[in-house]
Amino acid sequence: MAKPKIALKRVYEPPSDDDGLxxxxxxxxxxxxxxxxxxxxxxVKGIAPSPGLRVWYRHEIEKWPEFKKRYRAELKKxxxxxxxxxxxxxxxxxxxxxxxxxxxxxxxxxxxGFLLGKAK
Length: 120
Description:
alpha/beta, 37% helix, globular
């Protein structure tokens, strides 16, 4: 089976035909974005970092290495949500839609790497 193509895109960027299936990978709906404007095809809330991990991390860059390790550990224990997401991604073009301002240090990056078998 071919690995899926997974793009990453902020929810605040306009949707495009190149996005493929748009999957929101956040536990909370992003502020200031209507559901109509976001054009989300699937919302997999359960795949996002736990509330405790999200609050601990608070997008503090010095915590990034530890955040990645902790989030991957959560994903390993979250087979149901991971399987749901893998099914949505199966050999399709998908975009993981996220809300974080930092496009280089966010849970969507860790999630994509986890699903593609990369330990970035």
